[in-house]
Amino acid sequence: MLSTITTTTVRQKFANYDVVIPLSMAGVLIAVIIACIILILVIFTKRLHTVTHLLICNSSISSIFYCIVQCINYIFLVLIPSEMNDSACRWRGFFGYMAVAAVVYSYLAQAISRFFISILSTKYRWAMSFKAHISLILIQWVIVLLIPLPALVTKDIYYRPFALCWVPKKYTLHITYTVVAYYLIPAALIFIIYIYIYFRIKRRRNSIFTIRPTGRTHRDLEVLYNIMILFAIYTFGAIPTILYLSTGIQFLYEMGIISVSFTVAIEKIATLILDRDMRNMIKFYLHRSMTQIRPIS
């Protein structure tokens, strides 16, 4: 009886996972389904075999990786509570932070890709090549692998009953590192790159040598706006977690777990809606399937 009371008391200090995990899993499931649709659509549609859609697929793979890692962490938390090894918990924390970094830095890779295509390609042919973009993706994943190493080399992450394997709030220096390395640095770089590209494109469009805006200029601006919208959606999902770190309010921690999963799902849906080529291909396939199943009168 005393053991049950103690367990309940300890559990009340942490998140209400009976509600949080099912809601988060719903967002994870939607995100995985939409991400898989994007991958299948790009792989089997030759028209979508472009460097832009290569980077979109990279972000989709990052989202799937994040969802898988989250599911594994939930399984250990709920179904395998007997696993109390600190080293195993640190590895789960490492992959958890790696998954977060993978999604965020995939948007940084898209920003750099846009810089290649919009700015550098006017002078350098390699800037639009698949080889250059594959190298960019490989560099991104190396960075994503290195950034969460403090989760392994320190002992800040350890097993805590009824808690996910994250860095506890009391380790201020490590928490500051996670916010700066996983969010602030890539967000600042993305913002700087996009501002630079935007003004370069605007200057090109307003040039006295240009009679009318070119189709490429319109396309560059359209892609630029789309990526900014998608990154903004994902960034807003992290706001509850950042507020929790500054206030310590438990409700914000629970909202942070749910919001990130759903914003990944919303971002994937928005990708299909905003990308004109994928949107048109979906309409084409839907129209063709409806035409094929229409009964002959």
From TrEMBL:
Give the CC-aspect GO terms: plasma membrane
Keyword Signal attributed: no
Q: Which CDD domains match?
A: 7tm_classA_rhodopsin-like
Q: Name one GO molecular function term.
A: G protein-coupled receptor activity
State the annotated membrane topology for this chain: Multi-pass membrane protein
Instruction: Note the coiled coil stretches, chain numbering.
Output: none
- Main localization of the protein described in the UniProt heading: membrane
The G-protein coupled receptors family 1 profile domain is annotated at 34-244
Residue ranges annotated as transmembrane are: 20-44, 64-82, 94-120, 132-153, 173-199, 223-245, 251-274
Query: What is the top-level taxon of the source organism?
Result: Eukaryota
Q: Which UniProt keywords apply?
A: Cell membrane, Membrane, Receptor, Transmembrane, Transmembrane helix
Localization, per the record, is: Cell membrane
Name assigned to this protein? G-protein coupled receptors family 1 profile domain-containing protein
Name its species: Adineta steineri
